Amino acid sequence: MTPAAIIFDFDGVIADSEVRANRTLAESLTAIGLPTTYEECLRDYCGHNWQETERRIVARFGRPLPADFREQHRARAQIRFAEGFAPVPGAPAFLDTLGDRPRAIASSSSPAYIAASLDRFGLAHHFGRHVYSADGWERGKPHPDIYLAAAKGLGLDPAACLAIEDSPIGARAALAAGMTVIGFCGAGHILDRVAHGAKLREVGVHQVAHSYDEVLLHR
Fold it and tell me: Across the chain, which distance is largest between two alpha carbons, in Å?
């Protein structure tokens, strides 16, 4: 296709962050008496905004989280991310090929985290003000709201946009917005790319890419 714009998820598409993020969440939950593995965090929480993640945790925990849980979790995450944090392989070079094609980020993560990460990677200039976050929204992914907001911010019909998503939850959101969707399997948390690609195909993505080399666009 020749998309009018490309809308990127962030974690697992731009930032190679899901391993660190989900290991940290597993540690934080285990520390409050809810033993949780990294694999369980990937399975149950990946792709959701914090509001939905908290609802899911509370349902499993059977009681509200401690009042300072998110603050303590963020402090733990800052330490882990300081140990080393990089873009997804190929993402910076791919962005450099886009010229003046409109693009945006549509993410479940917090605006402050996205902004700090883009600055760290030297990629903020690629997106400017077109960074959209569903953090704090009642309806995050898999609802289409964040993708519809990104298309509206760009001034484009969602059907003219291409979305790149690594999680089935996010892919469902972009599909529900009426976008063409590439299921991306190039980040470090995806160990079996064939199996993960199959999961993305099950939700209806139009293409699966195992790396940015496989994301082909008509210029």
Answer: 52
